[in-house]
């Protein structure tokens, strides 16, 4: 039974973290380059729409489930064969670099953007708002993408080095 719980926890950690890393990676290399091609008003409207739409159960499962599953895997491996260091690295990378950057960086920017009535902005205000939002948001996104990918890689190594006796 303990082996089954360990296996399911490690598997869940890898899958959830991989989904999170994939989402952020895909955004980094497809959505961001695409949004650079649109005008200021469209950019702000699209980002407001996406920021509202992403708040859904499927995203929450992946975003909040990843650190929980990673922490559980770390605890389960702590008394094990030494792979726990990889699980700890994966957990810390995700908690600090992905979850923390999102919660304390991207989300406040998203909330400030959401509070704006875009119809009230003049074209020069649209440009100023976009510049302030986009440059900071994209820098933070690059950090959380790198952290999510590194967290996923550490979880995969952790899973591959977890001994069969676990």
TrEMBL record:
The chain crosses the membrane at residues 6-27, 58-78, 84-104, 145-163. Keywords: Membrane, Transmembrane, Transmembrane helix. It comes from the Bacteria. Pfam families: Anthrone_oxy (PF08592). The keyword Transmembrane applies. The keyword Transmembrane helix applies. This is Putative membrane protein. It comes from Neolewinella xylanilytica.
